[in-house]
Amino acid sequence: MRVFVTGGTGFIGSAVVADLLAAGHEVLGLARSAASARALDAAGATPHLGSLEDVESLRTAAARTDGVVHTAFDTADLARFVEAGRVERTALEALGDVLAGSGRPLVVTAGFAFLTPGSVATEEYTSTDPASPVGRAAEPLARSMAESGVCTSVVRLPCVHGTGDRFTVPRYIDVARRTGVSAYVGDGLNRWSAVHHTDAARVYRLALEKAVPGARYHAVAEEGVPFKEVARTIGRRLGLPVVSTPPEEADAHFGIDSYFAQADIPASSALTRERLGWEPTGPTLLADLDRDGYYAA
């Protein structure tokens, strides 16, 4: 297949590009700068100049390929989440317009919305909160597109870790450095589901190859890692005390990252493993967090 990948030079997208190429697919990667184009070319992909804001460039690329994997999303500034979601919606609608009725697959990235405390998210639950900073609007939109004749499927991502990670884990390392303590909230038993980025990449490829309209997949290797253990690993590596922060002080301590520091979102991938024949092989979150790369200046 010739596959168009958005976000192909990002943390997750670059792993998707590498996995697609290794499996024998051709890749056309969205490049919004000359540097991105060079990176895609070096990886063995063909650059396609454009951006999520340039819907004509998206339509052109989608028309030239056999399927699309959408991983791009502006996570650099969580304060701009709403604007990033608006851009994503417009981009997905443009891609859907081209792919509608063709049977060519569109694989969309989503996250996890909060569930009833104590429950575990499965592939069968339906996200109903498009405004959630975890759920995003991509999944409800993909579901609507599938009902309208676009062969969309969704890959839900937990905490993704690995070489090149610049988003989730590094933010808490930065908070620990800034405050002088590695903190968790309350008893710290809230859980993060997690996956190594190379394992996540295979889920995207398998979802693309299966092309099941309306399917939802969980790229989840670990169902739930207590956040307290994440804080303990960070504290040990930085030589900082590990402390509990009362819930009422969490926002002051973590700032905008308080939301995820308190998130309890365990998730199962049993159905994904069965339906895709996927089995993760990468390191665990805590093992990965214990390597030097996460603590380089």
From TrEMBL:
The protein's matches in InterPro entries, at most eight in alphabetical order, are given as:
Epimerase_deHydtase, NAD(P)-bd_dom_sf, NAD(P)-dependent_oxidoreduct
Q: By its UniProt entry, which Pfam families does this protein fall under?
A: Epimerase
What is a single cellular component term in the Gene Ontology annotation?
cytoplasm
Could you cite one Gene Ontology molecular function of this protein? aldehyde dehydrogenase (NAD+) activity
Q: Which residues form the NAD-dependent epimerase/dehydratase domain?
A: 3-214
Know the name of this protein? SDR family oxidoreductase
Species name: Streptomyces tabacisoli
